[in-house]
TrEMBL record:
InterPro entries: DUF779. This is DUF779 domain-containing protein.
Length: 116
């Protein structure tokens, strides 16, 4: 699968800052309520990827996963990870930096034969 996730320059800058402080990271987008609505950034090895999670690609050298259920809903969407002012998710490494990651999207054209 081609990468279905990209990052803005501001997001790449924040990723580099976090990696400098914590080492390699990964992202997970669960699609749940509250903190799960934002992409969460974790140290690699401290978040278990589920059997149904889907890797969308990498941003800033960090793998980016989405829950399988959320992928089913967003499979025709390209995600764009950006940064806005505010607090990150409670367990996300962007918390406490007064900037947080935000998922934006771009709807993709349906491949031939997949229109519903």
């Amino acid at each position: 699968m081609a990468d279905k996730v990209t990052a803005t320059p501001a997001a790449l800058e924040l990723i580099a800052e976090i990696v400098a402080d914590h080492g390699p990271v990964l992202f997970h987008q669960s699609g749940g309520c509250c903190d799960g609505s934002s992409p969460m950034c974790y140290p690699q090895g401290e978040f278990l990827i589920g059997d149904h999670d889907v890797k969308l690609g990498e941003i800033g050298g960090a793998p980016f996963y989405i829950s399988g259920a959320q992928y089913g809903v967003w499979k025709h969407t390209d995600l764009i990870i950006d940064v806005v002012p505010g607090r990150g998710g409670m367990f996300s490494l962007d918390n406490g930096r007064e900037r947080r990651f935000l998922t934006r999207s771009e709807i993709c054209a349906l491949p031939p034969g997949e229109a519903e």
